[in-house]
Specification:
It is built from seven helices and no strands. By secondary structure, the protein is mainly alpha-helical. Helix 3 (37-55) crosses helix 5. The model is unreliable at 95-101 (pLDDT under 50).
């Protein structure tokens, strides 16, 4: 997951890599990490995206493709759901008005 965040990971492929059944892998992963493997993967991708958006001049669509999303729209929805704001808002960082609230 960490080395290839854009790969089309499934629970099956992750479990196979770990040498476990899907059920056992999913249960152990959640016990260890605190979230499901797919939730963790989405969060990892969004953290990478947030870092790229703040520290590079790459477009949102380019970042989306680099992290395995087929469309900027799908990526932006996932980003908003996970991070609580749009990728562009995240890249700009907190505004002066945000600090006052």
């Amino acid at each position: 997951m960490h080395e290839q965040p854009a790969y089309r990971w499934t629970l099956k492929t992750l479990a196979e890599r770990a040498g476990m059944s899907r059920t056992t892998f999913a249960l152990r992963f959640k016990e260890t990490v605190g979230s499901s493997p797919m939730e963790y993967l989405t969060r990892w991708r969004m953290l990478l995206a947030g870092d790229r958006s703040k520290n590079t001049n790459e477009s949102v669509s380019r970042i989306a493709v680099m992290l395995g999303y087929e469309s900027e729209s799908a990526f932006s929805k996932a980003f908003r759901r996970t991070m609580g704001c749009s990728p562009r808002q995240y890249a700009r960082g907190p505004t002066q008005m945000d600090a006052l609230q």
